[in-house]
Amino acid sequence: xxxxxxxxxxxxxxxxxxxxxxxxxxxxxxxxxxxxxxxxxxxxxxxxxxxxxxxxxxxxxxxxxxxxxxxxxxxxxxxxxxxxxxxxxxxxxxxxxxxxxxxxxxxxxxxxxxxxxxxxxxxxxxxxxxxxxxxxxxxxxxxxxxxxxxxxxxxxxxxxxxxxxxxxxxxxxxxxxxxxxxxxxxxxxxxxxxxxxxxxxxxxxxxxxxxxxxxxxxxxxxxxxxxxxxxxxxxxxxxxxxxxxxxxxxxxxxxxxxxxxxxxxxxxxxxxxxxxxxxxxxxxxxxxxxxxxxxxxxxxxxxxxxxxxxxxxxxxxxxxxxxxxxxxxxxxxxxxxxxxxxxxxxxxxxxxxxxxxxxxxxxxxxxxxxxxxxxxxxxxxxxxxxxxxxxxxxxxxxxxxxxxxxxxxxxxxxxxxxxxxxxxxxxxxxxxxxxxxxxxxxxxxxxxxxxxxxxxxxxxxxxxxxxxxxxxxxxxxxxxxxxxxxxxxxxxxxxxxxxxxxxxxxxxxxxxxxxxxxxxxxxxxxxxxxxxxxxxxxxxxxxxxxxxxxxxxxxxxxxxxxxxxxxxxxxxxxxxxxxxxxxxxxxxxxxxxxxxxxxxxxxxxxxxxxxxxxxxxxxxxxxxxxxxxxxxxxxxxxxxxxxxxxxxxxxxxxxxxxxxxxxxxxxxxxxxxxxxxxxxxxxxxxxxxxxxxxxxxxxxxxxxxxxxxxxxxxxxxxxxxxxxxxxxxxxxxxxxxxxxxxxxxxxxxxxxxxxxxxxxxxxxxxxxxxxxxxxxxxxxxxxxxxxxxxxxxxxxxxxxxxxxxxxxxxxxxxxxxxxxxxxxxxxxxxxxxxxxxxxxxxxxxxxxxxxxxxxxxxxxxxxxxxxxxxxxxxxxxxxxxxxxxxxxxxxxxxxxxxxxxxxxxxxxxxxxxxxxxxxxxxxxxxxxxxxxxxxxxxxxxxxxxxxxxxxxxxxxxxxxxxxxxxxxxxxxxxxxxxxxxxxxxxxxxxxxxxxxxxxxxxxxxxxxxxxxxxxxxxxxxxxxxxxxxxxxxxxxxxxxxxxxxxxxxxxxxxxxxxxxxxxxxxxxxxxxxxxxxxxxxxxxxxxxxxxxxxxxxxxxxxxxxxxxxxxxxxxxxxxxxxxxxxxxxxxxxxxxxxxxxxxxxxxxxxxxxxxxxxxxxxxxxxxxxxxxxxxxxxxxxxxxxxxxxxxxxxxxxxxxxxxxxxxxxxxxxxxxxxxxxxxxxxxxxxxxxxxxxxxxxxxxxxxxxxxxxxxxxxxxxxxxxxxxxxxxxxxxxxxxxxxxxxxxxxxxxxxxxxxxxxxxxxxxxxxxxxxxxxxxxxxxxxxxxxxxxxxxxxxxxxxxxxxxxxxxxxxxxxxxxxxxxxxxxxxxxxxxxxxxxxxxxxxxxxxxxxxxxxxxxxxxxxxxxxxxxxxxxxxxxxxxxxxxxxxxxxxxxxxxxxxxxxxxxxxxxxxxxxxxxxxxxxxxxxxxxxxxxxxxxxxxxxxxxxxxxxxxxxxxxxxxxxxxxxxxxx
Length: 1514
Description:
By secondary structure, this protein is an alpha+beta fold. About 25% of the residues lie in helices and about 25% in strands.
């Protein structure tokens, strides 16, 4: 499954066998709470070490592709959870072991065998001192994984065996001491001023007799002493001149593997057998001021003392198993706890067992007693605790479940060796060791194993078994998953019997057996989609005899067999345009094969081989201006029978003859369906292990599929009622895919989905979305029972019937039920749990769920069984009733849940689990560990997991709330009829009292459906509120890892609207929960990352910055998380952008800056102080709230810098580094609108409004008038966000918006007049011209929401309206018809006879617009106060105006004074009348104070708000 920036939640089913874990390195965290083991199978395992000396596995980390050779901490800060791992192939990863998240990854040309973290004196960060299979020592920054310094050798350079770093007393530098394989000791002195990337030569070098040292360590208590351990002996040297002080040989049958100092005169040394020996050194041979006995003037110097090391303890584990390799061992000395020194020895072996010894402090007297005993009877110290993964598996009851456990069809004991998931059918195919294939309904099997459902049992789920292989099944391939050019019925399996079998999974029959290999089949691959036509129907198989073949599924024969490889095949690449298949072998040799003919073109080695591999482009499109390969002459093409060259040459000639003829080149297959709501992959740590299964839930894909199915079942009338008119018209257009059948609504909506790897949504110029090529039937309507609907299934017009088709009510609803059942916070609110079980149909977990987390570039952490015990065991005594805070009990009582409880199950429902049992609260027999897992451990995994789970459950709950009858519970027909009858009787009794007739059964059923619909919606609403707002109060504070603000900020503008809204709600709720002190801490944490404060070369505000910005998760963290957009991913870079070749420091810095901008902008918008007082009713929530430091009128620096960054992101022209419609830009647009009252003093408001209007151009085309939540294209999403921001700005500061827009209109008109005289037409393409519709929309919104504010600026508003309306239409249709909203104001009048518009202003003037002169405006003085009423006579000759300040009614003559009405028209006052004073209070609405009504052409009536009428004549 391709992992990108979507929110993907893994759940793992490990099965009954523990994974292999052959430990190669071990590490203990400084707080002694976490142990990390790395293994030769390329995984890491994190263990919890409790205060009671118990070890529990926490999670396993996947991501490396080769054995891990060494690990080291990534920081020396207290509470450090960063760890760096290095693999044998040069891969390095930086992990956060608490969350299991990969933070950074790279691949270097170094193979490390040892890494040590050291804080050099004059460097700010910790450095990793690394040595290995290279002739130098490299210093690496653990946070960026970049090599900062290289220590090289001038004298006899050689690989470094071991090294250590020490800090001499009374000196200001650090010393690196190392020993090479040939026994040369080298010393480098580092002062901290060394230049980066410049080699540093050694300061001293001396040859000693010590070959192939295992470890070298300097005594921290006496720097004169150095311990060097070799396989046959260990030695003590004087660091001053490296003279040998003493030595000890290895024990019989053992080889020394390492050692370290326990104190000044004691060491512990361990062997390859996993035993450790504690030695007392002869102090009279040691040197240094620390040792009193080494001083010649002391008494002990002249006493007889042993001259050789003395062993006094042996540390070993009771075990009869022979170890496959030497265990990894580590000494950890801790002095931080209460000032006491604690020495622990850790061991990890090839059986995956971790052992921890607490080393005793042995006195001299005890040591004397040991010295007097026999040498072979050393005291044995047993470990304080030991634990292996298999012991954990054996201790868990019931055992960890696998997906096939308990079925009678698999009682033969055969293990699963290969798996492939068929997402379009919801079926999983498992190959086993006995050669059989099992096909099972995945969702039902997962629910049976993980959830407590009474309607599911092993007998009710039917499995399909296929027999064909003689020996285990090694690999499976369902080619339709990779490309829709294959038949959806075909499945291929490769086995240990050297054969590949083609299956028809619909009929369950063996179609063909390919037997072309001479070894076990190890891999099956699909060729790329732009090969020649014959290869497109083939699959590629790789076998253990080093052969590769192309097998034609269509022709049922082998097209090509490549079998001359001398070494195992490592990878296969393609050059489709050259018709080449490139095979790379483990010895570095590359074989280039021609696919169609099977000709071996060449065999290359070395750098040429690497270049060929790196230049293979599997997605290349043919270019017909030249031959496929310019170096390939026609003679060579003929000799090698390269048909692709002839074909391209012919097409080139044809194009020269006919330029209009479309080319028939290789088609690029863009329709590979990858975006599935659930995907299952088999996983194993070792090739000999049985497969476990990881279920990936893609939240965005699930939401899209739910909405797709919802709209697919609607009638055209319902679609039109929901505003889906553009899609209805789109669906009525003829099909463009050549199939001849018009696409359905389901197809149109399904095609809108964006791929998991590529943003393929495009904009339809006629409104709505343009279709994306997806296979027909890939996305079913809700009512379709068939698992696959494809034209390929009826090749001869015959419909196939399959007795083994797994009936499913709705596959997407089953996936949603699984998803919500696993993520819901059970046990915290009994009433909500009862509602979920009996009304919504969610099921309780039957065992603790092992979740996972995906981070950078697909690196993954999977929880191990038993992970919850470290949390649960202290709380097992608390399984009784808990006194918790109040819940939503009062809200849920309105549901009358007891009326809807089931009293039984129906045997006919065996084929589906969309029904739930009547149990509500935890039953007496329920496992207390499961209860404690749901209420405690689930929310204590990590901040990142809590964030992902809450975002997912809230977004999916909101989606289900928007759907009709969204429940997972099915009612039995008899119960439904009984409820209808009871409802009818109730209605009948009410009707008898009222004397009305009873309704029909259909009406009562309809009423019941309406009631259920309301209850479902309220139930999902309560579920969302429970997780968004109430969860922190219900979970005890010690057991709650709160959502990570950084991840939520990166999702602020996620492309999926539901996830976006969930992230925003969670972020705001969490910021409110942490209070003023917590918000201040967030500001202090993120303020230094604002672009204003960082290095200008790394600032994203610098147009010349050197790396592209990426955003939110992933739109993550690409990391998931995502600059915003990971994974990791997270606002903005293209998905799949590999950080291996990037400047890590630059990338991470920009990502931090993007997050800081969003975080501080959210804080400022929600909690900052407005410089101007808030408008009436605007943002009342801020009253009484403590304002945030840095966003106040006294201290406004943060507000100023944040607004500067937001404006830059809005206005910066698109570039490769900052594309046009990235999430970080959308977030800036949204937050400018949300916090405009805070940012206003620091913004160029005019430029901001113009920038937003620019994005809104063509809004009606980009954003259809629909309310569904399918992802919009980036341009449409930016347009939608800009429209919302404009509305927020206008309603927050209406006067500012109107005045600035009026100034822009005036400036535009002046420029237009100037341009007309100079004959320039560019002015007519300006933003103000192209965004007229959007400006009118905002003005209409203001008139509707804030009429008083518009009335205060009515003249400026009219200027804007006249500009936006077409003057020609104004003359013919009038203002009342084109923009009726503004005509509601009593101070606006328009006359169709004179074609004039009059507006009374607040300053007492009268403005009128001559439509005959293109809306030219003239202003005259009319009254001494605001003109609150204007009205024109029916014949248009007179105008009446009124002001309540001077109490005057004035009549104006509007007709022309010239002959025939020619010339300019003048408005002059012909009469003024003093009127009765009107009482005006402070709360009086002036808009409704007075109205003027003409009763005839000479008389006007003044109507006042208190009901009085006054008549006046001209």
